[in-house]
Design goal:
Number of helices: 10
Mean pLDDT: 98
Number of strands: 8
Strand order of the largest sheet: 1-2-3-4-5-6-7-8
Distance between the termini: 8 Å
Low-confidence stretches: none
Helix content: 40-55%
Bound molecules: 2-phosphoglycolic acid
Length: about 250
């Protein structure tokens, strides 16, 4: 069970300190759930320091929201996976729908980034998800399959690759698929992902409007191994509430 927070483009140095202190104060609520926060790259190292200072450095991981496919070079504004590892990060999210939309990232781009993450010794969290029109027009499974086949890294294993199922229309909207739609999507993803990694062991996270109030019923579903949480990961109390709701 992994509860991963994606802070997106939110947070300040002051927020980092407050979050770490509040998370430490309530950490027992998380039980045995794995915890990971992916802040903006510039805040990753301060967050690691704040977790260590608050005494939860070994309990909560830190990762990045994106990386470049190349190890280094003339790529203004980008961050290499090796830099994420060097700064103390353990994971990197690749192929988030906001990256796919804002930066026109293709499945091939996402695959190359995931491979760079693995080369750097990081765990890649590969995001996939259908749009509202995909779902309305009955293309959900086909879209998910194409994204998996296009985005899964060469050399991926169930240990170094996580899949995050994030319906685009559920992100930041307060909407979620029905529980049976989530379970169906995870089963389909697991079946297709089995061509690339060990299906039984690969972690598949659900993401899209996860909150303390709906986390319990989502996280208990068969085939749901955790959550990728945007908005509700910005407040330690909500983030802990989601981990607590996982019941592990
Ligand atoms: P949300 O975002 O929880 O704010 O819907 C999820 C995500 O984009 O990872």
């Amino acid at each position: 069970m992994l509860i991963a927070g994606n802070w997106k483009m939110h947070g300040t140095l002051a927020d980092v300190r407050t979050f770490a202190d509040e998370l430490a104060a309530g950490i027992s609520r998380a039980g045995s759930a794995g915890l990971l926060i992916c802040p903006p790259a510039i805040l990753m190292n301060p967050l690691l320091g704040a977790f260590a200072k608050a005494g939860i450095g070994d309990r909560v991981g830190t990762g990045a929201q994106d990386c470049h496919a190349a190890a280094k070079g003339a790529h203004t504004g980008d961050t290499a996976a090796g830099m994420v590892a060097d700064a103390g990060g353990s994971h990197v999210i690749v192929g988030h729908s906001e990256r796919r939309a804002d930066h026109r990232e293709t499945d091939a781009d996402v695959k190359a980034k995931a491979e760079a993450a693995l080369t750097a010794g990081l765990i890649a969290i590969v995001c996939i998800g259908e749009t509202e029109s995909d779902r309305r027009e009955g293309r959900t499974n086909a879209v998910l399959e194409a994204q998996i086949r296009g985005s899964m890294p060469e050399g991926g294993t169930a240990e170094n690759t996580i899949v995050a199922y994030e319906p685009v229309w559920a992100i930041g909207t307060g909407l979620t698929p029905t529980l049976s739609d989530i379970a169906d999507a995870h089963a389909h993803i697991r079946a297709v992902a089995g061509d690339y990694v060990e299906a039984a062991n690969v972690a598949i996270l659900y993401g899209g409007s996860v909150k303390p109030g709906n986390a319990g019923e989502i996280l208990v579903l068969d085939g749901v191994d955790g959550a990728l949480v945007g908005g509700a990961s910005l407040k330690a109390d909500d983030f802990l509430g989601i981990a607590e709701a996982s019941g592990v």
